[in-house]
TrEMBL record, chain A:
It is a multi-pass membrane protein. One of its GO terms (cellular component) is plasma membrane. Pfam families: COX4_pro. Its main location: membrane. The chain crosses the membrane at residues 12-33, 39-58, 70-92. Keywords: Cell membrane, Membrane, Transmembrane, Transmembrane helix. It is found in: Cell membrane. This is Cytochrome C oxidase subunit IV family protein.
Automatic annotation (TrEMBL), chain B:
Belongs to the heme-copper respiratory oxidase family. This is Cytochrome c oxidase subunit 1. It catalyses: 4 Fe(II)-[cytochrome c] + O2 + 8 H(+)(in) = 4 Fe(III)-[cytochrome c] + 2 H2O + 4 H(+)(out). It is found in: Cell membrane; Membrane. Its main location: membrane. The chain crosses the membrane at residues 34-54, 74-99, 119-138, 158-180, 201-226, 246-269, 281-302, 317-339, 351-371, 391-411, 423-450, 470-491. Residues 17-526 form the Cytochrome oxidase subunit I profile domain. Keywords: Cell membrane, Copper, Electron transport, Heme, Iron, Membrane, Metal-binding, Respiratory chain, Translocase, Transmembrane, Transmembrane helix, Transport. GO terms for molecular function: cytochrome-c oxidase activity; heme binding; metal ion binding. It comes from Stygiobacter electus. It comes from the Bacteria. It is a multi-pass membrane protein. The gene is ctaD.
Length: 93, 541
């Protein structure tokens, strides 16, 4: 299959990998601090950034056709809705 | 169209082998569909016999033919086999594999080898499930929902049995990926999305659920196995876990899975009704879009299985409301099917009769679903026979009936043989009678307070339990009768013509049985899928 844009070089991959490591250490550090109800929110936020990096760069979605982006977006939205609905139980129990 | 025996897929090979190896190593989507057919039919018959034994135990109060532990094992096995080995893969893996590529004018699915791999993965999952029955510890007795904390604490072979479900999930995901890619990449020239037959639309929507929902059950199963093996407190409250979280995760998959089961069946109905009404489908786009709508809304209603679990009141009314919304696209389908028949030239051949039976049974199943979706009534009938009756009407009366409907519709195309029409009409009637005798009393029993999964019952339930058991004899007898006349048709059946029902979708344009790679020349699509003005041209072909 032909790709419309060029893939990134090794430098980008290594930078992304280092960024992922940094985010992981932030997650671990924050887990030790008691931030109350914001703990989960921050952990999810960091996880979202990490998965965006993996999906866009490592999985090459950034360089793919639009249809793949639409598919990934819809799947992500479904996941988000599932989270929100689960919290309609957890937060009000 | 004349067709000699040597020139069809049954006698052609995609590899250098002949005989059994040409089947086991085939990459032909039709042969893979038949591999699935044989294995799924086998497990269906096993599941049906287990159901028969359970009903026999319940013919009278107290012990009849088995002890309580055996009964617990049997209802678990019946559920696991029927759900994971029959009804989830059933229609997509058999008829989707066989007809989806043909209906969009393709020579095969996008990834033929991956397709064969999915069958092997399915078989590995099935064998693991079988092995778990015979290892020390004994067969699983948790019910097919594997609810925590019992499934963490029982000593039966839970881990291996649920690992089998994990493996089967991969088969489902691979099939889904294959179908989505096939629909996007391999449509024949002129086959736009809105010229695709509705079975393709339904299978396409199903494939999306298979891909997005199945990983959730995979993760959940792994978490249970980890908890069992290492005592990590994820779900077990005694270890600080949350048992309701398990129910959420389980139903986040298993509710959309209900739509994996029913959507392809609805697709088959949308094929059969126009063919036997000689009339284009009413509301084509509405039906196509309602499949996608069902697939989407199906993700948002899972916690209606959990109204009595102790989750928050907010979640209960939110999920109850969402549940009612899913009735809308289902209603769109039913009304459009009925409208298609209006002023049609109806030819009540067996496939059409199965569909009529489906509409009746599925409507009962669907409407009693609303009783269960309402908070107040659900509290009363939750975990009773009412629920058992409801989901058998939806799943067996819905998908199960259409499994037979699809088989009667496409059998002449798949094997090039015609079955006995008269016998098959009798079979529909017997099936309908047996089905209602078996399951309708359960609505009443459930309303009266008979809990599901109980080995014993109060004496006042005995008459209806007996009716139900007699119904199971009629139903299972009919199923074996059907299998019997199909086997007879395979051996001694008359040769089927290429278009015995007067259908117009692409599979009816090619010989019965089709050749390997389906089309000598890939067709260019000019007509809408249910344009019966093609019939005249087709007769001249």
């Amino acid at each position: 299959m032909e790709h419309t844009k060029k893939h990134p070089g090794y430098t980008t991959y290594i930078l992304v990998w280092l960024a992922l490591l940094v985010f992981t250490s932030i997650t671990v550090t924050i887990a030790g601090i008691d931030l109350g109800k914001y703990t989960l929110l921050i952990a999810m936020f960091i996880a979202a950034i990490k998965s965006a990096l993996v999906i866009n760069i490592f999985m090459h979605i950034k360089f793919e056709e639009k249809i793949f982006k639409v598919f990934i977006f819809l799947s992500g939205m479904t996941l988000l809705i599932i989270f929100i609905l689960t919290f309609s139980d957890f937060l009000f129990r | 169209m004349a067709n000699t025996i040597a020139e069809n897929y049954l006698h052609q090979s995609t590899n250098k082998y002949k005989g059994i190896l040409s089947w086991l190593l085939t990459t032909d989507h039709k042969k893979i569909g038949l591999l699935y057919f044989v294995s799924i039919l086998f497990f269906f018959l096993v599941g049906a016999i287990i159901g028969l034994l359970m009903r026999l135990e319940l013919i009278a109060p107290g012990r009849t033919i088995m002890g309580p532990q055996t009964y617990n094992t049997l209802f678990t096995l019946h559920g696991v086999i029927m759900i994971f080995l029959f009804i989830v893969p059933g229609l997509p893996a058999i008829f989707g594999n066989f007809f989806l590529p043909i209906q969009i004018g393709a020579r095969d699915v996008a990834f033929p080898r991956l397709n064969l791999l999915s069958w092997y993965v399915y078989m590995v999952g099935a064998i693991l499930a079988l092995v778990s029955l015979f290892l020390p510890g004994g067969p699983i007795d948790t019910g097919w929902t594997f609810y925590i904390p019992y499934s963490i604490r029982t000593n039966t072979n839970v881990s291996l049995a649920i690992f089998a479900a994990f493996v089967l999930g991969f088969s489902s995901i691979l099939t889904g990926i294959n179908f989505i890619t096939t629909v996007h990449r391999l449509r024949a020239p002129g086959m736009t999305f809105f010229k695709m037959p509705l079975f393709v639309w339904a299978t396409y929507a199903t494939a999306w659920i298979q891909i997005i929902a199945t990983p959730v059950i995979g993760i959940t199963i792994l978490l249970v196995i980890i908890e069992r093996a290492f005592g990590v407190g994820i779900f077990d409250p005694a270890l600080g876990g949350d048992p309701i979280l398990y129910q959420h995760l389980f139903w986040i998959y298993s509710h959309p899975a209900v739509y994996i089961m029913i959507l392809p069946a609805m697709g088959v109905v949308s094929e059969i009704i126009p063919t036997f009404s000689r009339r284009t489908i009413f509301g084509y786009k509405a039906i196509a879009m309602s499949s996608l709508a069902i697939a989407f809304i199906g993700y948002l209603v899972w916690a209606h299985h959990m109204f009595t679990s102790g989750m928050s009141d907010t979640a209960r009314w939110v999920f109850s409301l969402l549940t009612f919304i899913v009735a809308l696209p289902s209603g769109v389908k039913i009304f459009n099917w009925v409208a298609t028949m209006y002023k049609g030239s109806i030819d009540p051949q067996p496939p059409f009769l199965w569909v009529m039976s489906f509409i009746f049974l599925f409507s009962i199943g669907g409407l009693t679903g609303l009783v269960l979706g309402s908070l107040a009534t659900d509290i009363h009938v939750h975990d009773t026979y009412f629920v058992v009756a409801h989901f058998h009407y939806v799943m067996f009366g819905g998908t199960g009936t259409i499994f037979f409907g699809a088989l009667h519709y496409w059998f002449p195309k798949m094997f090039g043989k015609m079955y006995n029409i008269k016998l098959s009409k009798i079979a529909v009637a017997l099936f309908f009678i047996g089905f209602n005798m078996l399951y309708f009393p359960k609505f009443i029993l459930g309303y009266m307070g008979m809990p599901r999964r109980y080995y014993d019952y109060l004496p006042q339930f005995e008459p209806l339990q007996k009716v139900s058991t007699v119904g199971s004899w009629i139903l299972v007898g009919t199923i074996f009768f059907i299998v019997g006349y199909f086997i007879h048709a395979l051996i001694k059946g008359k040769k089927a013509t290429s278009n015995p029902w007067g259908g117009v979708t692409l599979e009816w344009h090619i010989p019965s049985p089709p050749i390997q790679e389906n089309f000598e020349v890939i067709p260019t699509i000019t007509h809408k899928p249910y344009d019966f003005s093609q019939l005249k041209e087709m007769k001249n072909e």
